[in-house]
Amino acid sequence: LNKSATPDIQARLDNLTKPRGSLGRLEDLALRLTLISMAAGRGNLPQADPARIYTCAADHGVAARGVSKFPQEVTRQMVFNFLNGGAAVNVFTRSSDVELRVVDVGVKGADFADTPGLLNRKIAQGTADISAGPAMSLQECISAVELGISLAEQAANEGIRVVGTGEMGIANTTAATALYCAYLDLPPETITGPGTGLNEQEIRHKAGVVGRALQTNHVELPPADPMRTLAALGGLEIACLSGLILGCARRKLAVVIDGFISTAAYVAAWKIHPSVGDYAFFAHGSAEPGHSVILHHLRVRPILDLGMRLGEGTGVALAIPILRAAAAMYNNMASFADAGVSGSDDSA
Amino acid sequence: LNKSATPDIQARLDNLTKPRGSLGRLEDLALRLTLISMAAGRGNLPQADPARIYTCAADHGVAARGVSKFPQEVTRQMVFNFLNGGAAVNVFTRSSDVELRVVDVGVKGADFADTPGLLNRKIAQGTADISAGPAMSLQECISAVELGISLAEQAANEGIRVVGTGEMGIANTTAATALYCAYLDLPPETITGPGTGLNEQEIRHKAGVVGRALQTNHVELPPADPMRTLAALGGLEIACLSGLILGCARRKLAVVIDGFISTAAYVAAWKIHPSVGDYAFFAHGSAEPGHSVILHHLRVRPILDLGMRLGEGTGVALAIPILRAAAAMYNNMASFADAGVSGSDDSA
Description:
Two copies of one chain form a homodimer.
Chain A: H1 6-15, H2 25-39, E1 51-58, H3 73-84, H4 88-96, E2 99-106, E3 118-120, H5 138-157, E4 162-168, H6 172-184, H7 188-191, H8 200-216, H9 226-233, H10 236-251, E5 254-257, H11 260-272, E6 280-282, H12 290-298, H13 314-332, H14 336-339
Parallel strand pairs in A: 1-2, 1-4, 2-3, 4-5, 5-6
Helix pairs in contact in A: 1-2, 2-13, 4-13, 5-9, 5-10, 6-8, 6-9, 6-11, 10-11
């Protein structure tokens, strides 16, 4: 991201009718959204609309290892819930006026019937159990990443200005935890958490499953190619989100990363192409305890911190109104000169 | 607030298609909004719309003591900016679909020309210098509080469901700091901060001004009646907001408190009538350093933490979409039974 316009953008921010810096994080958001618009050749004003969340769903073989409070069929049931408009992400996207697309990347069972907002793009019937071998073949993983890139391409072509990540997949905190451990060289115990609500003993069991996944797949871990690590430990929906994030960077679109699992997709994308960091915004700090460790590691601060741990893109749907307000501030606030307001004694 | 329905509300929250507790703070917000609806006899569902912010403006005699980076005339200039739609609170309320009312409670100079959204309710030509005597007479303070109560009455009668506080008044962080020190028995140094952007030496000077205000007005401080303390150290806009908060509690309306100055108005209201706590939501943690001390003292957590320190109601305008999402979650999400989604193994 070319940052040479930063002083000009900062000067405009400082000329708006408010004490300098008094809008805090919103000023940072407006600055980066403006740099993104400029990099994309979309003018020199920030844009946060229209916004669209892709909620990508897939199953995980590791669900058979007892790492979630919910049975595997809930992935499929929740996709039906998304298509019927009854899930949290539906309610929040309607409340925030954000578009929602649901993508079947690898939900077990037959394809879903055609429904508005649904993309049937099943690559496989879920992944294999990562504690016994690789989650998927390298080719399946590349297909999922390419699918995600194509979604970003489509969004850009349709005029979308902010893309959000969302996911559904029973047991996918286990896959995300394994990816964090592999990419960031962290021991499972520091990142493994309750997910949908495990107790302490169940968390220890889950950390053991992650440990076995790392051991079993050790030849696929860094310094191996990051795509091979993603294939070995990830999920089809996670790989698709990694591709979505890569595609947003390629097309110079702002991308808002949801919670614990989406951030694992981000880390994979970042390992593949570090420039994704320029386009990424982190929606919220998850209540899943490992998330704060990871965000600290990445040196990023989330926009919201509401103790949520649901996924689906729910955090993104709540963060987008903040991005929208940041853009509106930059685009629509009066300057001191326009409004005839006296400046501070520093600016005299 | 009658909390007897809490178990029923919690049971409904736990039946929505998400892991228990996974929407974190939004579940707490939905619970309290529901209790408020029930207390008001408005049914048993939470309501966050329509929402309206009252941005109350007044001048402060203590501005003459060099406690702000901006000259006093900026209060009046900013009211013109509000009326022309160019200030941050205008932009954010438009972005969030929140109504805005601007109230002249005591801006120096002539009344403003009639403008949609403006309430001309000037009680005095600003306050007197609190470092030399009381800010206002007890009767002026009572009039300002009664004005605020009447605004809440009007909002309730017009069907408003969420009220927000906002303010404008050069030097009002000094008045707010003095109120905190008096009501919560804190030394000026622990609460006095940069406001619009003072440097360290200027902050020490401002703390000295607060100290003189406390000394000069010592007979009006606790254990004196809290209304007398408000008259001695407060501001016309602050007293009006205290009344607004009291009026919301009387009419059982949710009230969202903005930042550092609005929270001082809340503390005054709370000292007058502690039940206001049941109806109050804290929009955001201000970057003004004393605010986190005060919120900790009050044992409340703000909804947002975006490093903002602008006032006007800007934090409220950003927090209301979160309240709206919380209400929508409770009102519109599918239950496990409705959606045919399997429960967790705990709920079997």
